[in-house]
Every structure is written in C-alpha cells, then in structure tokens.
Write a structure and sequence with these properties.
The complex is a heterodimer of chains A (about 140) and B (about 140).
Chain A: H1 2-42, H2 47-59, E1 63-64, E2 69-70, E3 75-79, E4 97-102, E5 106-108, E6 120-122, E7 125-130
Antiparallel strand pairs in A: 1-2, 3-4, 4-7, 5-6
Chain B: H1 2-44, E1 47-48, H2 52-68, E2 89-94, E3 103-108, E4 111-114, E5 119-122, E6 127-131, E7 136-137
Parallel strand pairs in B: 1-7
Antiparallel strand pairs in B: 2-3, 3-6, 4-5
Helix pairs in contact in B: 1-2
Classes of the chains: A alpha+beta (about 140), B alpha+beta (about 140).
C-alpha cells in the first residue's frame, strides 16, 4: 500500500511539478526573447544607449510561474562579436550584440519533494539579439 | 474489500486531479507559445495606420496568428489550441496618438479550458509584451 502511494505521489509529481517547470521555461524564454529585442533596439554605439538597453529590459512587464511572479536577477551583457561578453563594456561604440539572462527563476516543487525530489527547480533562460536584426516577416 | 473501496476512492481522486491539472498546464503552455509567437509577429509587422480600420485589420491578422498560426487563415483552418477564438486574443499597441508604437501587448481573455472534472478560465493570462521593431507606415493601407 505504501509502495503504491509512493508511486502515485511520484506520478502526480511528474505531472504537476514538471508541467509547471515546462511552463516556467517557456515563459522565461519568451521574456528573454522580448527583453533582448528591447535591449538591442536601444544600442546606438554610446554609453547612454547601453543604459537605455538595461532600462528597457527592466521595464518589460512580462511575468512567469503562470503569470504570478516578476523576473528577478535579470542580467544584461554586451559584446562586439557574440563571444566576449561584458556587463560593463569599455568601448560602447563597438557593441553590436546583447545577451539577456534570467537565471534566478526558482520554482517551488510541491509533490516531487515528498518522494525525494528537489525543493526548488531553477529554470534559467537566455537570448541573444543583435543591433542589426534579420527581418523574418514582411 | 473495504480497503480497496477506500483506497480506490483516494486514487481516483488523485488521478482525476492529476489529469485536470496536467491538461490545464498543457493548454497553458501552448497558450504561452502561441501568444509569444503572435507578439513576436506583431513586433516585426509593418504598422499601417492610414485610418482606424487599417489598425484594426492589422490587429486582426495578429489575433489570427495567435489562434491559427497564420495571419490570413483559410476558412477550414483549425485553431492550434482547441476552442480558442480570435476574439479571445487582445492586442494592444503602446503608442502615443499619431506616432510609431513602442511596444505591443498580446494576451488571452476569457478563455475556458474544460478539463472534464473542472473548468479553468484564463483572463489576462498569458500576457506578453514585445518591443515594436517593425516599420511604421502611417500613410499606408492594409492590403
């Protein structure tokens, strides 16, 4: 009987907790996609442009965890070549890429923790955008 | 026999709950994807604003993109999420009067998921805002 309950809790945990994890991952990816586009739009080769890029990311109202939580600890980094990233680049005029990361999305686990699973699950996401985007539609 | 009856009741309740939440999560995840794709399409689409009708036609194309995955769906097109209708998708342009939009908000309103054992209604969720990076064409008409 206890073995059956253990298995039942595990199955419920897989359905409930992993379902929420997949939603959170999707929400986080949509957010960083939008945030990287918002930041890339502001980059104009000046330090003020980088500040505007950071502010544009902060302004986005997108949320996660079924739309309940705002994104915390979002990181914005810049690079001239999509490889050498820096949060505070020295030469703003060379910046052409922006990377937005949302690493602190900690989802509370409800059922799986009862059968030995983790108490929280981290769902990070990141996206890269450039100042010269390829137009895919019309 | 009594034990079986008692445990079966608990198990059926648990399984029913698992099904309804699992199905609700599945639909919500699809909604997040659809709204995200629709908002991305809206963000890159040409904003034609010759008059209010053109703006509305552009918004209708975005709603179709969310619901059908196609801005101009055929009459036989089926929604990517069962039961979702274009009128349940809200498209809001963030713009000052007579100027280019700075962002577009896309969200779902009054959409009910029937998970057999219980219904869930999403109102205002999922919500996505994308910055507008498309071409602003105040004098153009929607084709």
């Amino acid at each position: 009987m206890s073995a059956c309950m253990f298995l039942l809790l595990a199955v419920i945990g897989l359905a409930f907790d992993l379902g929420r994890v997949y939603i959170a991952r999707n929400e986080a990816q949509v957010f960083v996609d939008a945030a990287s586009m918002a930041a890339a739009q502001q980059i104009d080769g000046t330090a003020a442009g980088l500040d505007r890029a950071r502010a544009a990311v902060k302004r986005l109202p997108d949320r996660w965890n079924l739309g309940a939580n705002s994104f915390e600890g979002v990181q914005v980094e810049f690079a001239p070549d999509s490889e050498h990233w820096s949060a505070q680049p020295q030469e703003a005029e060379n910046v052409h890429f922006v990377r937005v990361m949302a690493p602190d999305n900690h989802l509370d686990i409800v059922f799986l923790r009862a059968v030995g699973g983790p108490e929280t699950f981290t769902v990070p996401a990141q996206a890269v955008a450039t100042t010269n985007p390829v137009r895919l539609t019309e | 026999m009594l034990e079986l009856a008692l445990s079966a009741g608990v198990m059926m309740t648990c399984l029913a709950g698992t099904f309804q939440f699992g199905y609700m999560f599945y639909i919500y995840n699809q909604l997040v994807t659809a709204v995200g794709n629709g908002a991305r399409y809206a963000a890159q689409r040409t904003y034609r604003a010759a008059n209010a009708q053109d703006i509305e036609r552009g918004s209708a194309a975005i709603r179709n993109m969310v619901v059908f995955g196609d801005a101009q769906p055929s009459n036989e097109a089926t929604p990517v999420i069962p039961g979702l209708k274009p009128e349940q998708v809200t498209v809001e342009w963030i713009a000052k009067e007579g100027s280019a939009p700075v962002a577009v908000d896309v969200s779902i309103h009054d959409f009910t998921v029937n998970a057999i054992f219980r219904s869930f209604t999403f109102d205002g969720k999922p919500f996505v805002e994308f910055p507008y990076i498309g071409r602003y064409a105040p004098g153009e008409r929607e084709p």
